[in-house]
Design goal:
The complex is a heterotrimer of chains A (491), B (306) and C (360). Chain A has 491 residues and is of the alpha/beta class. Chain A has 17 helices and 19 strands. In chain A, the strands form four sheets. Chain A has a six-stranded mixed sheet with strand order 6-7-8-3-9-10, sandwiched between helices. In chain A, strands 15-16-17-13-18-19 form a six-stranded mixed sheet, sandwiched between helices. In chain A, helix 14 packs parallel to helix 15. With 360 residues, chain C is an all-alpha fold. Helix content of chain C is 72%, strand content 0%. Chain C contains 13 helices and no strands. The longest helix of chain C has 30 residues. Chain C starts with a helix and ends in a 10-residue tail after the last helix. Classes of the chains: A alpha/beta (491), B mainly alpha (306), C mainly alpha (360). Chains in contact: A-B, A-C, B-C.
Chain lengths: 491, 306, 360
C-alpha cells in the first residue's frame, strides 16, 4: 500500500482498513476512504477492485470482516441500510433498486414507518423536484420512465431521507454523454451546498473533471488517495492497473486487419418486435464479415439487446431479411441467468450447448474428455469436468462459457460469435484473457459481434463500430466523441 | 322463494367465512412473494387446536388455541423457508403432511380412536340489532357467530392497511422487488416472517371456525382441501383483499347451490356440487391470470442470506 | 475431487444407515411422546414390514409397487422444474380408465393378455391426459401447475366417487364400488410370494428405464437442464422450454396413471373411492428422499412401502395410530429439503458469493 497523504480533517464519511472475504475470495484487504465534507470524491478502480463492495459496506448491505466506519468523525456501526439512512448516507445503485410497478411517490415513501399519507409524499417529491431541477411526476409509474429518469428517482429517494452523503455507483454508465454532463454538474452543486458525494467510476476523465479528491482501489486495497488537482490521468491509470497495465496496453495494440472476408451476418431492413408488439428495432441494415470484430454501441434500451439475440438466433425477426449461420456462439451478459446451470458439473454445462436439437444417447465419456480438453486450452480452474459450476469463481465460469461458445458441438471452432458485456464483473486478468480469446477467434476467421456498455471496451476490441439509435443501426468512425454523439442522435 | 334464498345465503356465508379467513392470510404471504402450501396444514392444526382449547376452556380458549396452532405451523414454515432457505413448495407440502399425521395421531391418542361425537362448546350466533331484522338477508348475514363479523371486517381492514400504511407499502415492495425493499432499509426476512406468521394464525382461526362455529366437533382431515381452495381464491381475487372476499363468497355460493338444489327438489349427483368449486377455480384461474399481475417475486427462490 | 466408485458406494450405504437410524429414532421418540409402548410399537413396525417373508412380499413390496411408479412420476416432473402435486389424481384417472376398459370389453373377444396390456396402456394414457390438462392451462394461461394439479386431484377424487355410485357401480347397486374384475384379467401373481404380482416387474423396469433416461438420453438431459434453469436451457441450449415442461408433466402423469392401472389389475380388482391411501402424496416424499433419482426410488419406495405396511401392523397389534407414519414421512421430507438448501450454501461458500455484487 502506498502512503496516504492526510486529507483535510473534516470528513463526512471515513472508512478505515476495511477487510471482506467471500470464502477464499478476498474482496477487500484493508481498503480505506476519507470523504471530506462539501466535496465530490471519486472512487476509482478496475472491475473487481472492490469499489462497490466498499460502498455497500458503508451503506449497510455488506458487513465487513474488519475495519472501522466513521461518520462526521464518530465511529459508527452500520449493519443495515436503515442504519446508514439514519446517519444521512444515501446510495444510488448501479442496478436501480426501484419497484417497477409502483409510482415515484410510492418508491420514495418506501422504508418509512407509520401511516402512509401519499398526498404528503407527492408534495415532498414535487418539493425535491423544484429544489433539484429534476422533472419528476410523483404519480408516474417507475416502469414507464427512462433510465435517466429512474436514476433521478433514486437520487430523490436519498434526498427525501435527508442524505448528506450521496454514494453513486457508476451513475454515468447508463447515461448518454449529455445526460452525464447534467448529472455531474448537479452533483457539483449539491456538494457545494455542504453535502458530500462519493462517485464510483472507472472513467478517469470523468473523475478528474468533477472530483475534489480521488481514491483508487486495486485488488481490495487503497493504492492512491490524492487531491484531484494534484494528480494526472496517467498517475491514476498506473494506480488502477498496476503491473497489469503493460499487458493490457500491449494486447490493445494488436489489431488492424484486412476486412474483405466473406459475409457471415447480413441484415436487410431488419425489424424486431417485442412481446407487446412494440418495435425494438425498425430498420437495421448491415453486414458482418469473417475476421471482423464489430462493436455495437448504444445507450441502454436502444434495441441492441434484441439485435444481439436476433443475430444469435434466439429471437426471430418480425420483418426484413437476416442471414446468419446456423451455429452462432452466444455469450449473454447475465451469465447465471442465461448461460449456465449452476448446480451441474462442467461437462454438463458444456453439453448444454446444442441440447435442444440433440437426439438419442449422450456419450458422456467423450463429453468429459472434450470438456477437459477445453478446460485445459482455456485455463479454467479447477480443470476437473466433474466440479459443480457453482464452485468456480466468476472469472472461471465466464471462461468456461466463452470456451463453450467458441467451439461447436464436436470441438470444431465456431465461425460466428455474439458477445454481450462479456467481461462484466470480471477481474482484470480474466478480462484480459477473454479479450485475447475473442481477438484470437477473429484472427482465426470468425465473425465477432461485441456489445459492451463500457465504450472503452468497444474501442479496445472493435475493428468497426455500429451505433444503435432511434430504431436503426449505422456505422460510425472508431472515435469516442463520434460514437457518443451517434448514441445520442446528435451526431 | 325466500325460504330458498335465506338458507342459500346462510350456507354461502358459512362456507365462505373460513375460506376468507385463510385466504386473507395467504394473501399477505403471497404479497410478500411466497406461496405457503402448508396453509392446509395450518387450518387442520387450528381445527385440532380449537378442539383441545374448547374442551378445556370454552369457545374463547378454543379460538386462542386455534390461533396458536396455526401460528405454530406458520413458524415451522418460516423456519424452513426463511431461516434454512429450503424450497417453499416442498416445505409447505411436508408441513401439510405433518399436520395431517400429527393431528390424526394426537386426536386418537387424546380422544380415543372411536371418534365419538365430542360435546364441546360452540360459538353461539350473535344477532346484530337492527341489521338482523332486515328482510331476507338479515338473519342470513347478521345473525352469525361473532367470528363471521371479524371476517367481514378483515377485507376492508387489509385493503386499508396495504394501501395506507408504510408497513403495507413495505410488504408490497418485498413481494415485488425484495432487493429494492432491502435497499430502502426494510428487513425483508423479518417482513416475510411476519406475513407467514399472520397467515398461519389466520389459517388456524379458519380451522377453529370449522370446529367452533360450524361442525361442533373435530374429524381427521376435516380441513378437506380448504387450504388449497384458499390459495386458489387469492389468485382469483387478483391478490387484493376485496377481490379475495369476493372470491370466497363465490365459492361459498357454488357449494351452497347443493342445498338450494335439494330445497328446490332438483336432482343432480351430489359430487357435482362438491367438485364445482374446484372446476370453478380451474376455469376462473385460467381467466383470472393473464388479466391480473402476480407479485413479481412470487414463488421465486429466496436470495441467499448474508 | 476424484470420486472412486467404491467410496461413493460407501457414502450411499452410510447415508442409508443414517436414514434408517433416523426413522427408528424418530419413531421411538414419537411413540414415547404419545405414551405408547416403544418396544411393542417398533416390534410391530418391524414385523409388519420386514419381519417375515409374507410381510415383506405381500405387504411391503405390494405397497412399494405404486410408490415406485408415482415416485418416478414425481421425480420426472420435479427434475424438469414442474411441481406436479397431482400424482394422486393421475393415479385415480389411470385406475378408473383401466377399470372401465376391462369391464366394458367382454372377455372372449380378445385374449386376456391383450386386454391386460391394453388396460395398462389406457391407464397410462389417462394419467397423461389428466396431467395434460394442467400442462395446457399452464401453457395457455400461465396458471402455476402447483395449484392446478392440486385442484385436479380433488376433481379426480369426486369423479371416481361419482363413477362408483353411477355408471361403474357394481350390478347390485349396494356398494360404492365397481364390479369385480374377472380372475383371467388379473395380473399374474409371482409364485411363492403371496399377493405379490408381476406389477413389480413392470415397476422395476420403469424405474430402471427412467434412471437410464436421465443419465444417458439427450431428452433426459434436456429435462434436467430445464429444471435447473429454464432461461439458460432456452438461451444456451436452444431448448424449447414450455414443450419440455409439458412433456415432462405428461410423462409424469403417464407413470402415475400406470400405477393406478397396475393397482386395479394386481391388488384391488375393482375401483372404489379410497383406492389410493395417498400414494400420489407419499410419492413426493419417496422422490425427494431419493434425490429425484429413479434408481434410488427403488430403495425409497420400498422404505415407504415398509413404513406404511408397518403402520398398519402397529395400529393393529400395538394400538398406535397409523397416522404416526405421516409425521415420520413429513419429517423426512423436511430433513431432505433443509439439508439440500444447506448443501447449496456450503458449495457456494467455497467459491464466489451467490449474489456477487456486480463489481466484486
Amino acid at each position: 500500500m502506498t502512503a496516504q497523504p492526510a486529507l483535510a480533517t473534516a470528513s463526512a464519511l471515513s472508512l478505515e482498513s476495511i477487510a471482506k472475504r467471500y470464502g477464499s475470495f478476498v474482496a477487500l484487504d484493508g481498503a480505506s476512504l476519507q470523504v471530506r465534507t462539501g466535496t465530490v470524491h471519486a472512487l476509482l478502480g478496475e472491475n473487481g477492485a472492490g469499489k462497490t463492495t466498499l460502498m455497500r459496506i458503508a451503506y449497510g448491505l455488506v458487513r465487513p470482516d474488519a475495519g472501522a466506519v466513521l461518520v462526521d468523525g464518530a465511529r459508527v456501526t452500520i449493519t443495515t441500510p436503515s442504519d446508514a439512512i439514519a446517519l444521512g448516507i444515501g446510495m444510488v445503485h448501479q442496478h436501480f433498486t426501484l419497484v417497477p410497478v409502483m409510482t415515484i411517490a410510492e418508491n420514495v415513501a418506501l422504508g418509512a414507518h407509520g401511516m402512509l399519507d401519499i398526498g404528503r409524499v407527492r408534495a415532498r417529491v414535487r418539493d425535491i423536484a423544484d429544489r433539484t431541477g429534476f422533472a419528476l411526476d410523483p404519480s408516474a409509474r417507475v416502469e414507464s420512465l427512462s433510465v435517466g429518469a429512474q436514476q433521478r428517482v433514486e437520487i430523490a429517494k436519498a434526498l427525501v431521507r435527508d442524505a448528506r452523503v450521496l454514494i453513486l455507483d457508476e451513475p454515468t454508465a447508463v447515461l448518454a454523454p449529455e445526460e452525464s454532463r447534467v448529472l455531474l454538474a448537479w452533483l457539483r452543486s449539491y456538494a457545494d451546498a455542504g453535502n458530500s458525494v462519493v462517485l464510483i467510476t472507472h472513467k478517469l476523465g470523468e473523475a478528474l473533471s468533477v472530483a475534489d479528491d480521488v481514491t483508487v482501489l486495486r485488488r481490495g486495497r487503497t493504492v492512491l488517495a490524492e487531491r484531484g488537482a494534484s494528480t494526472t490521468t496517467e498517475a491514476l491509470a498506473d494506480a488502477m492497473l498496476g503491473t497489469d497495465s503493460a499487458a493490457v496496453v500491449a494486447s490493445a495494440s494488436a489489431h488492424a486487419r484486412s476486412l474483405d472476408g466473406p459475409i457471415v451476418f447480413r441484415a436487410q431492413r431488419l425489424r424486431l418486435t417485442d412481446g407487446n408488439g412494440v418495435d425494438r428495432l425498425r430498420d437495421a441494415t448491415f453486414d458482418v464479415r469473417a475476421g471482423e470484430i464489430v462493436g455495437i454501441a448504444g445507450i441502454e434500451g436502444s434495441g441492441q439487446r434484441d439485435l444481439l439475440r436476433a443475430l444469435a438466433g434466439r429471437i426471430a425477426p418480425s420483418a426484413g431479411e437476416l442471414i446468419r449461420p446456423p451455429e452462432v456462439g452466444f455469450i449473454p451478459e447475465d451469465r447465471h441467468h442465461d448461460a449456465v446451470l449452476l448446480d451441474r458439473d462442467l461437462s454438463e454445462n458444456v453439453v448444454l450447448r446444442g441440447a435442444g436439437t440433440r437426439r438419442g444417447i449422450i456419450d458422456w465419456k467423450s463429453a468429459r474428455a472434450g470438456t477437459e480438453a477445453l478446460l485445459e486450452a482455456f485455463d479454467v480452474r479447477p480443470p476437473d469436468s466433474r466440479t459443480p459450476l457453482r464452485a468456480l469463481s466468476g472469472g472461471n465460469q465466464q471462461k468456461l462459457v466463452v470456451a463453450r461458445e467458441l467451439h461447436a458441438d464436436a470441438g470444431v471452432k465456431t465461425h460466428a460469435i455474439v458477445a454481450e458485456n462479456p467481461t462484466r464483473g470480471l477481474d482484470i486478468r480474466a478480462t484480459a484473457d477473454i479479450h485475447a480469446r475473442l481477438r484470437q477467434a477473429s484472427a482465426d476467421g470468425a465473425a465477432v459481434v461485441l456489445y459492451s456498455n463500457d465504450l472503452d471496451e468497444v474501442l479496445l476490441l472493435a475493428t468497426r463500430v455500429l451505433v444503435v439509435h432511434g430504431g436503426t443501426v449505422r456505422e460510425v468512425a472508431l472515435d469516442r466523441d463520434t460514437i457518443g454523439q451517434a448514441m445520442l442522435g446528435t451526431g | 322463494m325466500t325460504d330458498v334464498i335465506a338458507p342459500f345465503l346462510a350456507a354461502t356465508i358459512r362456507t365462505a367465512v373460513p375460506l376468507a379467513l385463510a385466504a386473507m392470510g395467504e394473501l399477505l404471504v403471497e404479497r410478500a412473494g411466497l406461496i405457503n402450501i402448508g396453509l392446509e396444514g395450518a387450518i387442520l392444526a387450528g381445527a385440532f387446536g380449537a378442539l383441545v382449547g374448547a374442551s378445556a376452556g370454552g369457545v374463547a380458549a378454543g379460538f386462542v388455541a386455534a390461533l396458536v396452532a396455526g401460528l405454530l405451523v406458520g413458524a415451522l414454515f418460516a423456519l424452513c423457508v426463511i431461516v434454512m432457505r429450503a424450497d417453499q413448495i416442498i416445505a409447505g407440502t411436508a408441513l401439510t403432511l405433518l399436520s395431517v399425521g400429527a393431528t390424526g395421531t394426537l386426536y386418537r391418542t387424546l380422544f380415543g380412536s372411536s371418534g365419538a361425537a365430542l360435546g364441546i362448546p360452540t360459538s353461539a350466533p350473535f344477532s346484530i340489532p337492527g341489521l338482523s331484522a332486515l328482510p331476507v338477508v338479515g338473519a342470513a348475514l347478521f345473525s352469525q357467530p361473532p367470528i363471521t363479523y371479524l371476517a367481514y371486517l378483515l377485507g376492508p381492514v387489509l385493503a386499508w392497511w396495504l394501501s395506507r400504511t408504510h408497513a403495507g407499502l413495505a410488504l408490497r415492495a418485498v413481494g415485488e422487488r425484495p432487493e429494492a425493499a432491502e435497499a430502502a432499509g426494510i428487513n425483508v426476512d423479518r417482513m416475510r416472517t411476519a406475513a407467514i406468521l399472520t397467515g398461519g394464525a389466520l389459517g388456524g382461526i379458519a380451522g377453529g371456525t370449522l370446529v367452533l362455529a360450524q361442525a361442533g366437533t373435530f374429524a381427521e382431515g376435516m380441513s378437506a382441501g380448504r387450504g388449497f381452495i384458499a390459495i386458489a381464491i387469492v389468485v382469483l381475487g387478483r391478490w387484493t383483499p376485496l377481490g379475495v372476499a369476493g372470491g370466497a363468497l363465490l365459492f361459498g355460493a357454488a357449494s351452497a347451490l347443493q342445498f338450494a338444489f335439494q330445497a328446490m327438489g332438483w336432482r343432480a349427483p351430489y359430487q357435482l356440487f362438491l367438485v364445482a368449486p374446484y372446476l370453478l377455480t380451474l376455469t376462473a384461474l385460467a381467466g383470472a391470470v393473464g388479466r391480473a399481475r402476480a407479485p413479481a417475486a412470487l414463488g421465486k427462490a429466496l436470495e441467499p442470506r448474508r | 475431487m476424484p470420486h472412486s466408485r467404491s467410496r461413493r458406494l460407501l457414502g450411499e450405504i452410510a447415508l442409508a444407515v443414517v436414514v434408517l437410524a433416523a426413522i427408528a429414532l424418530s419413531s421411538a421418540l414419537l411413540l414415547l411422546a404419545g405414551g405408547y409402548q416403544v418396544g411393542a410399537g417398533l416390534r410391530a413396525l418391524w414385523l409388519g414390514s420386514f419381519g417375515s417373508w409374507y410381510a415383506f412380499t405381500s405387504s411391503t413390496l405390494v405397497r412399494a409397487i405404486p410408490l415406485m411408479f408415482t415416485g418416478c412420476a414425481v421425480s420426472v416432473a420435479f427434475r424438469a422444474g414442474v411441481f406436479n402435486i397431482g400424482a394422486e389424481g393421475q393415479f385415480l384417472s389411470g385406475a378408473a380408465a383401466a377399470t372401465a376398459l376391462v369391464l366394458a370389453l367382454p372377455l372372449g373377444r380378445l385374449p386376456a393378455p391383450v386386454l391386460i396390456v391394453s388396460a395398462l396402456l389406457v391407464a397410462t394414457a389417462a394419467g397423461a391426459a389428466w396431467a395434460a390438462i394442467a400442462a395446457l392451462i399452464r401453457a395457455r394461461f400461465g396458471v402455476l401447475e402447483v395449484i392446478s394439479t392440486i385442484m385436479l386431484n380433488f376433481v379426480a377424487l369426486y369423479a371416481v366417487s361419482y363413477l362408483v355410485r353411477g355408471p361403474l357401480q357394481e350390478p347390485t347397486r349396494v356398494y360404492p364400488q365397481s364390479a369385480t374384475i374377472v380372475d383371467a384379467l388379473h395380473l399374474p401373481r409371482i409364485p411363492g410370494a403371496g399377493r405379490l404380482h408381476v406389477g413389480l416387474v413392470i415397476a422395476v423396469l420403469s424405474t430402471v428405464l427412467a434412471g437410464w433416461f436421465f443419465r444417458r438420453a439427450a431428452a433426459g438431459f434436456r429435462l434436467i437442464a430445464v429444471g435447473e434453469s429454464p432461461s439458460a436451457a432456452a438461451s444456451a441450449g436452444g431448448i424449447d422450454v414450455p414443450r419440455t415442461m409439458a412433456r415432462a408433466l405428461m410423462a409424469s402423469g403417464g407413470l402415475a396413471g400406470l400405477a393406478g392401472g397396475v393397482e386395479v389389475l394386481g391388488i384391488t380388482f375393482a375401483l372404489y373411492e379410497n383406492i389410493s391411501p395417498g400414494y400420489g402424496y407419499t410419492a413426493i416424499a419417496v422422490a425427494l428422499l431419493a434425490g429425484l433419482d429413479p434408481w434410488r426410488v427403488l430403495l425409497t419406495s420400498m422404505l415407504f412401502g415398509a413404513l406404511e405396511a408397518g403402520a398398519g401392523a402397529m395400529q393393529r397389534d400395538a394400538g398406535v395410530p397409523s397416522s404416526l407414519v405421516s409425521v415420520i414421512e413429513a419429517l423426512l421430507i423436511l430433513a431432505v429439503v433443509v439439508g439440500r438448501a444447506a448443501r447449496v450454501r456450503r458449495i457456494s461458500a467455497s467459491g464466489m458469493p451467490l449474489a456477487s455484487p456486480p463489481d466484486a
